[in-house]
Amino acid sequence: MRNKLFSRVAAYGRVRLVGTMPDKTKFISQKGTYPKGFLINGVSSGVKANAKKDLMVLFSPTPCNAAAVFTKNAFQAAPVQVSRNVLQGNGGTGIHAVVVNSGCANAVTGEGGIRDAKAIAKATEELTQLHKDSSAKKDNLPSTLLMSTGVIGQRPKLDKIKQGLAITLKDMGSSHQHWMRAAEAICTTDTFPKLLSKQVKMADRVYTVAGASKGAATLLGFFVTDAPIAPDAVQSILRHAITNSFNSISIDGDTSTNDTIAFLANGAAGGSEITSSSAEYEPIRDAITELAQDLAKLVVRDGEGATKFVTVQVRGAKSVQDAAIVASTISNSALVKTAFFGEDANWGRILCAVGYSGATVNPNATSVSFVPADGSETLKLLVNGEPQNIDETRASEILAQEELTVDIDLGSGSFEKTNWTCDFSYDYVRINADYRS
Amino acid sequence: MRNKLFSRVAAYGRVRLVGTMPDKTKFISQKGTYPKGFLINGVSSGVKANAKKDLMVLFSPTPCNAAAVFTKNAFQAAPVQVSRNVLQGNGGTGIHAVVVNSGCANAVTGEGGIRDAKAIAKATEELTQLHKDSSAKKDNLPSTLLMSTGVIGQRPKLDKIKQGLAITLKDMGSSHQHWMRAAEAICTTDTFPKLLSKQVKMADRVYTVAGASKGAATLLGFFVTDAPIAPDAVQSILRHAITNSFNSISIDGDTSTNDTIAFLANGAAGGSEITSSSAEYEPIRDAITELAQDLAKLVVRDGEGATKFVTVQVRGAKSVQDAAIVASTISNSALVKTAFFGEDANWGRILCAVGYSGATVNPNATSVSFVPADGSETLKLLVNGEPQNIDETRASEILAQEELTVDIDLGSGSFEKTNWTCDFSYDYVRINADYRS
User: Fold this and answer.
1) CATH code for B24-301?
2) pLDDT for A98 beyond 90
3) Are A74 and B344 a contacting pair at CB < 8 A?
4) Where are the residues marked Involved in the stabilization of negative charge on the oxyanion by the formation of the oxyanion hole as a site (chains A, B) (predicted)?
5) CA-CA distance, B94 to B256, in Å (whole number)?
6) Residue B298 pLDDT > 60, yes or no?
7) Are B254 and A334 within 8 A, CB to CB?
8) Is A433 within 8 Å of B338 when comparing Cβ atoms?
9) Which residue of A has its CA nearest to B104?
10) How far apart (Å, rounded) are the C-alpha atoms in residues B387 and A106?
11) Is the pLDDT of residue A18 over 50?
12) Which of chain A's residues have a Cβ under 8 Å away from the Cβ of B333?
């Protein structure tokens, strides 16, 4: 089949090499400051056919308060089911590790897949037992969260993963290089690792947050902090962060069997426990939300074959639901996304997507504009339902840029929603046409 | 902008010429028998930049009972609004003409666009007045249905269209060549005209049905018969035909501002009026439904860049809604469609789409199979949630064929739905990236 695929796909792939894909290496962080008390590493366990890194472990000797959001897909992968049970069983406390493997999704693998996932968690807990704080030694509850990404319907190669875990744990650390190896290990079709960190200065101390993510067909990510956040606050901060980040991006609208984002807080930086009523709550929540948003935007920038980063800004909606459905419908429209790739100011397709989104729309109150990334003047395409005479040269200049904001004013209310999406290029087809082979 | 686009797109386009696009000329009907009492023609009015045909008129001297289904998009194009009003004003009777222009959608053109559409209808009615039956002469109600397709936000060039109408009407006829010219005139990104006809033998006479359609970003079509069908029956037959044809296909899931399908019956073949209680009702309804389904399938076969024709057959659903949402979610999944283009037996993506469709799904009762077009043995991919060991060579053989049926058994009930879709190729991107330019 590979040969067949090669004949169908390779020619285009070669052309693409001389194409207009922007340089994305600029998004790779060159240094970072990472939260206290977390050890991390990523290696190649041999699960991926190539020699690429495919296994990472994040470990905290101190037990963490943790929360995670999981895919709503009816076919929940084994690691999703196991991780959800661990969090429920522990009441969102006592988490020590996050293990992510790439190359095998362990999805639609039945009871065997569940056993495999539990075996990976157990192996991690045995290998890390000695490294846990005395405070944690006595608790024998499961303390590992799992994420997997890769081909569906295949069981993970347990021996290779167990060997890989041992190798990974031998060389754990907290340097930028250690974090980068982990960020690389969770990638599949990603063209660059997505790793970010930042600090939040409080009155008496500094807290640090860091995280990594991968896209696009399957969305995985985690962010961690050394702030001492109470379990309920961990939950509410994660919900707030996700709503404004990973739930506001679109590559192709598909929702995988494995999508998972986890948030861990180990309190290693000290200070009194942060609850939703603490003065530190909002600053730390906003810092984590910003980090999550930046990680989500990197997933869009690295959308399969993406050559454009497009912000879809919907205003004047009658309800928050209307704003959200319009933003996501535009962000998912193949016709809109191919027009962006073609650098075609085809606002009709944007309007068309608004029209079939299902939102309450008043054609005579709807306006659409392009807001250039370079800060130059906004280009009005449609004003209160009236098409404007477009300066195509100007439109071309704006669309030639790597970033663009599409502003849609529904003129029907005061609700708004911003999504981030990318264009739909030949490489989206090439990458996804031969992914499994 | 064209040059810019050229540099982004043309290289791939050239590669595509040596690519694997199947020969679609085999779908062009070489002859046909057409309903009595309909005159038709298609010409180039100069609205399209190139010299391609872009205007057609279908005319019946005898007034027709007629019905139409229109896009649900909130931005209804001027011809949609005008045609709906004509049908409502006439109570679905007294229709003499259908005028379709391609190259300009006359959508999002405000009151001016409405005036333009009415002017095109009025010009048609004046030019055809003398040709109408004496029975029709006295009625001065609007009697023209309009359809437009092309770029959104541009007013139609009235002078060119009026000149075009005169030229078109000078050479009306009922030969296969006349019908083919009309079928060509409604095309935009279509690579071949979609024209079909068939006969229905009744006890005492033969009725003939014929129709044409175009896709894909905008869906237009009409079918006509010389059977004497009552207005209510025209309505119910159209609804039945659409549900089982144009509402069961997917190219990219977008719903345009102009989508319109019309059905006209002029009774020119004689016989007593056919109502829903007539013996002729079901035979004629089924013949028209079959014709509509074949026209809809041609739209899928000619989906922008389509190299595969895929039947998505959902069975065992808990409700008719579940069956429909699963079929349409799979049919619209970019990941599923790119896998078909790659000829990759990536059933995980099909299952994934089932899982996020929103339908009630029992993972352990779900089965997925590929049914080869050549009648050879079915390839089981997933049986009651258990992945099967796939013979990749066999899978490759099946996927290499131009047609394929994906069979999904949800194992949760007795409802089913069949949709038709196509793959997602480089050419989908190329065609839609530079459509407007």
Assistant:
1) 3.60.70.12
2) yes
3) no
4) 149-150
5) 28
6) yes
7) yes
8) yes
9) A348
10) 12
11) no
12) 252, 254
Across the strands, what pairs with A58?
A40, A98
Query: Where are the strands (E) in A206-335, listed by range?
Result: 206-214, 220-225, 249-250, 260-265, 309-317
Between residues A103 and A13, which one has the greater pLDDT? A103
- Identify which of B256, B359, B382 has the shortest CB distance to residue A352: B256
Label residue A69 left, alpha or beta by phi (over 0 means left) and psi (-120 to 50 means alpha).
beta
Eight-class DSSP state of A350: H
Q: Compare CB distances from B363 to A75, A344, A386 and report the shortest one's residue.
A: A75
pLDDT tens figures, B231-282: 999 999 999 999 999 999 988 878 899 999 999 999 999 999 999 999 999 9
Sheet with strand A367-372: strands edge to edge: A249-250, A415-422, A309-317, A403-409, A367-372, A379-383, A386-387
* Token pair belonging to A233: 């606050």
CA–CA distance from A194 to each of A98, A191, A293, A297 (Å)? 17, 10, 12, 10
Element (H, E) at B88: helix B78-90
Q: Where are the domains of chain B?
A: 24-301, 309-433
- The pLDDT of residue B4 is above 60: no
Per-residue pLDDT for B200 more than 70?
Answer: yes
**Backbone angles phi and psi of A365, in degrees to 5:** -115, 0
Q: Which residues of B touch A15 (CB under 8 A)?
A: 11-12, 15
Exposure class string for A193-227: b at 16+ Cβ within 10 A, else e? bbbbbbebebeeeebbbbbbbbbbbbbbbbbbbbb
**Predicted model pTM:** 0.91
Which of the pair, B9 or B429, is modelled with greater confidence? Answer: B429
A92 has pLDDT over 90: yes
Q: What distance in Å separates the CA atoms of residue B15 and residue A292, rounded to the nearest whole number? A: 40
Residue B216: is the preceding peptide bond cis (ω within 30°)? yes
Check B153 against A387: CB less than 8 A apart: yes
Architecture per CATH, domain B309-433, reads as Roll (3.10)
Residues A25 and A47: their CA atoms lie apart, in Å, by 26
Sign of the Cα torsion B268, B270, B273, B276 reads negative
* Average pLDDT for B379-399: 92
Is the confidence at residue A4, as pLDDT, over 80? no
What is the enclosing helix (H) or strand (E) of B234? helix B231-243
A393 belongs to the catalytic site: no
DSSP A247: G
Condensed to tens digits (0 to 9), the pLDDT of residues B5-55 reads 344 444 444 333 334 677 888 999 999 999 999 999 999 999 988 889 999
Calculate how close chain B gets to A387, using CA atoms only, in Å.
6
DSSP summary character for residue B22:
P
